[in-house]
Design brief:
The chain contains no helices and six strands. It has 113 residues and is an all-beta fold. The chain has a four-stranded antiparallel sheet, with no helix packed on it. Strands 1-2 form a two-stranded antiparallel ribbon. Strand 1 and strand 2 form a beta hairpin.
Length: 113
């Protein structure tokens, strides 16, 4: 089991951002061992969603800023950070979006009424 991304690794075949697996098989009889290699193997990173908010403490009728601090959304092929933020506030009533977009923005401001 691979437990870390292949980003930044270089397999024995020289391909960047990949792993490979090699196996050697031999027998007790005379003769050279056989080798097999499988690759490239590309492993992305695990997403770890998180956010911060301010001010603290939170009060009614106050604008709250929420900021996305998610880590680990790494595209396995390009090894670039991919941000696909979608905010959801439940219930859907009792608040107003003051700034930002609920789909795509890393920061939103919300007034809880």
């Amino acid at each position: 089991m691979f437990t870390e991304t292949s980003c930044g690794k270089t397999a024995s075949n020289g391909i960047p951002n990949t792993y490979d697996i090699s196996i050697q098989a031999s027998s007790p009889c005379p003769g050279p061992p056989d080798f097999a290699t499988l690759g490239p193997i590309i492993i992305g990173d695990t997403i770890r969603p998180d956010f911060i908010y301010s001010p603290n403490p939170l009060c009614e009728n106050q604008i709250i800023t929420f900021t996305n601090t998610t880590t680990g959304t790494i595209d396995a092929v390009s090894c670039l950070f991919i941000s696909n933020v979608a905010w959801e506030i439940s219930p859907a009533t009792g608040w107003t979006l003051i700034s930002g977009n609920m789909s795509g923005d890393d920061q939103i401001q919300v007034l809880f009424e």
